[in-house]
Amino acid sequence: MTVNRSKVVIVGAGNVGSTIAFNLVIAGVCDEVMLLDVNAEKARGEVLDLRHCVEYASRNIRVKTGSYADCSDADIVVITASAPRGGTIDRLEMLGATAKIVGDIVTPIMASGFNGHFIVISNPVDVMAYYVWRLSGLPKNQVIGTGTALDSARLKTLIGELMNIDPRSVQGYTMGEHGDSQMIPWSHVTVGGKSFLEIVADDRARFGEVDLEGLLSRTVRSGFEVLSRKGNTQFGIAGATVGIIKAILFDENRMIPVSTLLDGEYGESDVFCGVPAILNRTGVKEIGEFHLTPEELRRFHASADIIRQAIASLPPEGGASL
């Protein structure tokens, strides 16, 4: 009898990749974590450091380096590698350089015989997730961009601060692009099961006139607020990614707003967008299609159009392996 071992490969051993690896090890999410990076010594150093924390983790996780050929039996490959952001707010400015990097990664991984799930973090994530799907030839449910998973967590944090309530009691999502054009379907934001808009309307003395556009703007700028102070973001996106990994490996059927291929949902097709989706061992099991107001739907379409325009500028194929 063969006992299957769960294996997660992380491509990119920078701040984000190493933080994801650390979270996986400490939480005991999988049996094996592999780190790959063009800087092999950096990856090796991170692996050695991670091995030294296993003694105090919840279980013994095998941590190692390897090559793209070793991805053949991976359950999940996480792509974090991308072009340096260089202080820019607009993630779309990173498209050309990141597409070359992603192409160089996906081609040899698929040549290894990989047939698991790709989780794409590289920005602009919606465009890169589409590119990975196109390059890999995998079914659409097996390619997932982190999409608006982190943005949604940022929105819940802001609402939690406004209401002085645990952000985990807030239910709501941002949708569309992981970028400036994302939108919030306020008609579906609730706190403890009650509509957020109704809560505000019922208690003007406490909340006053809540600036919804201001909350959206602060949500969009949250990443830059972190970036401008410490030079990178890592903990938030690592937490979101590990949540997605757990939903897949543990077959959770959990709804998380990720970037996935739309095929008629919300009136959109052939574009990766951040939408609520049910995740389990198959990847994207189902897209949650909410009834949006006409204005919310208009904003969602506008965001999808921006992603689609960026997709049109992608190169026809990836590059060579390392």
UniProtKB/TrEMBL annotation:
Keywords: Cytoplasm, NAD, Oxidoreductase
EC number(s) per entry: 1.1.1.27
GO cellular component, one term: cytoplasm
Superkingdom, natural source: Bacteria
GO BP terms, alphabetized: glycolytic process; lactate metabolic process
Residues in Lactate/malate dehydrogenase N-terminal domain copies: 7-145
Active site per UniProt: H178
Protein residues bound to substrate: R85, R91, N123, P124, V125, D126, D151, S152, A153, R154, T233
Cellular location(s): Cytoplasm
Function: Catalyzes the conversion of lactate to pyruvate.
Protein name (record): L-lactate dehydrogenase
